[in-house]
Amino acid sequence: MGFLGDRPLTGSIRMKLKNAFLASLMASALLAGCQGSSLDDISPKAEKPLPQKIVAKMKAKGMTTTSPIMIRIFKEEGQLEVWKRKDNGRYDVIATYDICKWSGKLGPKYIEGDRQAPEGFYTVRPAQMNPRSSYYLSFNIGFPNAYDRVNGRTGQHLMVHGACSSSGCYSMTDEQVAEIYAFARDAFRGGQTAFQIQAFPFRMTAANMARYRNDPNYPFWKMLKEGYDLFEITKVPPKVDVCEKRYVFNNTAIGPEGIAPDAACPTVGQPDALRMSYMSYQKTFETAFSTAQKKSSKQAPAPSIAGEAEAKLVAAWSAARARGEKVSREPPSLTPASAEKPNAPDIDPVMTAKTAPAAAQPAPQQATAAAPQQIPVEMPPVPAAAPVPQPNPVAQAPAGDVTAGNPAGETPMAPPAPEAVQAADAAAAGKPWWKVFGR
């Protein structure tokens, strides 16, 4: 029998000491991870190198493996693009992936539990990367950001992850997410402090904007389109801030420290060359939009992805009713499905203690990864916000994105159970719609 001071080590005391020792080891591992130590021994899959074919393609485009990245997501097209900075300071697309699954419909996320994949401009920092995800690998996109919070939008744990299963996230195959994760990992090791994610409902062309001109989300999409257009013109991620509860882009009157999201916007101070380029771009767009609008007005409006799915549910409901089966009195709808349970969590149980968000802290809107001197000479420099110290899901309270996170040493947050999503997917695959939706 052992002793602790003058006390014999009973079974109960031995167990407490053992648990305390294990907790200490876990805390040390988490602290090491927050400080950037290697995670090779924890998750070898997070260290998988990019395929040589992609490395050769980067070299041909004038990129290095550690140069900064940016990600664009398009819901309707179901695509995720990885862009990388070239030697001339501009970005070029290096890889495009078909999104395996995204949930909800076209439009932004409003409340936790609506199972809606977010749209907007987000920031990802090192502490948002999760090499021990329940869904192979993942990273938190940073929802809610400053815009979301000031407009009362709620939710958490919104990810890009593997396993091809999603309720509010952008889900990829394991092979795809391994490459996307590697792009981010290498960029961080090259010195990038944060990369930008631009999540759009669709490619914001004149034809698409004309198709959706009567959608209730159109004013929100027009606001996103300004950032989309500025990137199309400069091929440099725009500086993003939030004031007057809206996104503003490349406003040089707003310094690196940012501005309160509900404060009045200062006078826009875009450089003359950029302003003139933007006006020229908009003139061309308006001409194309007018033509597309006339053309689309003669055609039936294109159904949305959610509309097509809902039509299939209604057809199944009608057939079941005709067969005399017991179904609901009203046709099914995808939209009320989330509204029925407004407090249901957004399921992406890939969060660990390292990536679980804590209370949000006010912060200016996200900074671009590119420094002014990296922008091509012919384009005006777009100021970048200074790096900010890192809590989590953003290692730093994002310079304008927004969730603050768990500093090292804080009590770990228990991850949600992944079984919920897996069970839901299994049910959806094997049960009639009225059972899946609880009718």
TrEMBL record:
Q: Which organism is it from?
A: Phyllobacterium phragmitis
Pro residues bias (residue ranges): 378-392
Q: Which InterPro entries match?
A: LD_TPept_cat_dom (IPR005490), Transpep_catalytic_dom (IPR038063)
CDD domains assigned:
YkuD_like
The L,D-TPase catalytic domain sits at 69-200
Pathway assignment: Cell wall biogenesis; peptidoglycan biosynthesis
List the lineage, top down: Bacteria, Pseudomonadati, Pseudomonadota, Alphaproteobacteria, Hyphomicrobiales
Which Pfam families does its entry note? YkuD (PF03734)
Extract the ranges annotated as region (Disordered).
322-439
Task: Could you list this entry's UniProt keywords, alphabetically sorted.
Answer: Cell shape, Cell wall biogenesis/degradation, Peptidoglycan synthesis, Transferase
- Provide the family line: Belongs to the YkuD family.
Residue ranges, compositional bias (Low complexity) = 352-374, 419-432
What is the top-level taxon of the source organism?
A: Bacteria
Protein name, entry field = L,D-TPase catalytic domain-containing protein
Instruction: Please list the residues that make up the active site.
Output: 161, 169
